[in-house]
Design a protein that fits this description.
The chain has helices at residues 3-34, 37-42, 92-98, 101-104, 106-109, 143-147, 174-189, and strands at 55-59, 64-67, 81-87, 113-120, 135-139, 155-159, 165-170, 203-204. With 208 residues, the protein is an alpha+beta fold. The N and C termini lie far apart (75 Å).
């Protein structure tokens, strides 16, 4: 066998491997296309395991912070993470959640999880009935939504105490929240995120 044979033989295997990879990617894309819309959206957003970016937020009391997601230990109960719900003006499902007593009561059911509702900026903020236990925040020009790569609203992340994303999902109703919380808490207990050096604590923004 001469050198030409081995060269063409090697090229043949390279072409075959390339075709197999492309076929797998094609089937994956086809699977995403036929997947129900809500489930497909749940796969979007930032990847599981990546560090959540620091977000400029204005909270209910008027405080503006560069929010970094780090949760210090609180009392005798170990903190497990943060549920960050991203909503937008004109989203009817978001408005429905804002008046849902079961959603408002989630912090009481899960005291080791912090709950943060983040709205896109709007002229008149939505009234959130009985959401006293939630941290309510607004993102100027929805910059936070862009930074978190929100594919549609209402969308939520479960973020670990060291600021890594453990779970994510479109959340249209209470069962969606419960499934997301249980998924995130399970991964938090199993050390689901890769630890990195902690970011500086949330700081007061210089600009308002």
């Amino acid at each position: 066998m001469n050198a030409l044979f081995w060269v063409t033989y090697g090229i043949l295997w390279i072409v075959l491997a390339t075709v197999v990879v492309m076929l797998v990617l094609l089937y994956r894309q086809f699977g995403l296309m036929i997947m129900p819309g809500g489930r497909r959206i749940s796969y979007a957003g930032l990847d599981i395991g990546v560090r959540a970016p620091v977000l400029p937020l204005r909270f209910r009391d008027g405080t503006e912070l560069a929010y970094d997601w780090i949760l210090p230990p609180a009392g005798s109960m170990a903190q497990q993470g943060t549920i960050a719900l991203f909503a937008m003006p004109g989203c009817p499902i978001c408005d429905g959640l804002a008046h849902n007593a079961d959603i408002a009561a989630l912090p009481e059911r899960y005291p080791t999880v912090r709950f943060v509702w983040i709205d896109g900026e709007k002229e008149t903020e939505t009234e959130h009935a009985n959401f006293y236990a939630w941290s309510m925040a607004v993102s100027r020009h929805a910059h936070a939504h862009s930074a978190m790569d929100i594919p549609g609203t209402p969308f939520a992340y479960f973020i670990s105490t060291d600021a890594h994303i453990l779970a994510k999902s479109l959340v249209n109703a209470l069962p969606d929240f419960e499934a997301l919380i249980e998924d995130g808490r399970r991964k938090a207990l199993n050390g689901g995120a890769i630890s990195e050096l902690p970011m500086p604590a949330a700081r007061q923004m210089e600009e308002t």
